[in-house]
Design brief:
The protein has 334 residues and is of the alpha/beta class. 35% of the residues lie in helices and 26% in strands. It has 2 domains: 139 residues, Rossmann fold (3-Layer(aba) Sandwich), CATH 3.40.50.720; 165 residues, Dihydrodipicolinate Reductase, domain 2, CATH 3.30.360.10. It has 10 helices and 17 strands. The chain has a 7-stranded mixed sheet. Strands 3-2-1-4-5-6 form a 6-stranded parallel sheet, sandwiched between helices. Strands 13-14 form a two-stranded antiparallel sheet. Helix 8 crosses helix 10. The structure holds nicotinamide-adenine-dinucleotide.
């Protein structure tokens, strides 16, 4: 079987995770890399045995590739995605799809017109616990949704990198996407509250309240204040209250931790864990799904750009609410 040949753009922290994940997908071959920082692209090529490093963005689109994987910073998805679609490639793009609705619309229109896959990287739809929750909801056993509460807290050590983007767009976007997926209905109104305990560009502490049509309530929380010495990178939780039952999940306390004289460590067991040097978990499963869709020339029914656009719309309204200090009504927003 011919492998799915991929060109990866953006070789930073998560680009490295994508390279690890693709290495664990038998049908995938990362054939070319590009990064505006050539040094990091060459380092990744050496580490992962990638034959080609492109000198300029446009060069990657001239190669014999089936798909382009865009793992650039949140504000830099538009150009590499649009050029990939124009070159006739299928595209995987990390979350958020884009940081503006106008960019999301142009990407979606371009992919639709060209008949190319545009798959957004909402990996939690492939994470076992969140996906099981979706199945449980669809079985009807939880009844109708009354409320959802999501926590996605992070170590302070990640702030210098991800503080570049408002936390609603950077991190709450995961839970906004999940809540839209679970609720299966649009959002009516939002209110965002940001606070800044450190000296970053954006808030390091953010709460968003989301009211869905029909009255379902959602609360998204992201706080980037876990002390660097705690040995904990992520503290995530999700609780869904239904009329007939409750779904409840936590990362902390972890199922596995290491206790050393130098301190405590709680490794990631779900999103991008490594075993015997190889990737497992949600990211690997998500990228394997992308390769299967590309090989079959079929769009995904799980990861759809239109859904990712809705999450961007809600995140954007939460950012606006945080700055304006008032509710933002998005009823009727397309
Ligand atoms: N799904 C998840 O759980 C998850 C986790 C982490 C990051 N992400 C997403 O992945 C994306 C990348 O994040 P990251 O952590 O790797 O960031 P990063 O800053 O570590 O890496 C970004 C890389 O892109 C390069 N770059 C910047 N602008 C570019 C351009 N115009 N063209 C080519 N290369 C460019 C930079 O040199 C850098 O190497 C973001 O959208 C982020 O939100 C998702």
């Amino acid at each position: 079987m011919r492998k799915v040949r991929i060109g990866l753009i953006g070789c930073g922290l998560f680009g490295e995770s994508h390279l690890q994940a693709f290495r664990a997908v038998r049908e995938a071959e990362v054939a070319a890399l590009y990064d505006i920082n050539p040094e990091i692209a060459h380092r990744r090529a050496a580490d992962f045995g990638v034959a080609k490093v492109c000198r300029a963005l446009d060069e990657i689109y001239t190669l014999d590739l089936d798909a382009i994987d865009v793992v650039t910073p949140e504000d830099d998805h538009f150009e590499p995605v649009m050029k990939a679609i124009a070159a006739g490639k299928h595209v995987f793009v990390e979350k958020p799809l884009a940081t503006s609705l106008a960019d999301c619309d142009r990407m979606i229109d371009a992919a639709r017109t060209a008949g190319r896959i545009l798959m957004p990287g909402h990996l939690l739809r492939f994470e076992t616990r969140y996906a099981m929750l979706k199945d449980e909801l669809e079985s009807g056993r939880l009844g109708r949704i009354v409320s959802m509460h999501a926590r996605r807290n992070r170590t302070k050590a990640l702030l210098p990198r991800y503080g570049r983007t408002h936390p609603a767009m950077e991190n709450c976007i995961h839970d906004i996407d999940l809540m839209l997926w679970y609720a299966g209905r649009p959002v009516r109104k939002v209110r965002g509250f940001g606070r800044r305990a450190t000296q970053g560009k954006h808030s390091d502490t953010f709460f968003g309240v989301i009211e869905f049509e029909g009255g379902v309530l959602g609360v998204v929380e992201t706080i980037w204040m876990i002390p660097k010495g705690a040995g904990i990178m992520l503290n995530d939780a999700f609780q869904l209250v239904g009329s007939e039952g409750i779904a409840d999940m936590h990362l902390q306390p972890p199922a596995l931790s290491f206790w050393y004289e130098s301190g405590y460590q709680a490794p990631d067991l779900f999103y991008d864990p490594r075993v015997r040097g190889g990737a497992r978990g949600a990211l690997r499963d998500e990228l394997a799904h992308f390769c299967a869709c590309v090989a079959d020339h079929q769009p995904s029914t799980v990861l759809r750009a239109e859904d990712a656009r809705r999450a961007v719309q809600v995140a954007q309204a939460l950012v606006e609410s945080d700055y304006a200090g008032r509710d933002i009504d998005i009823t009727g927003w397309r």
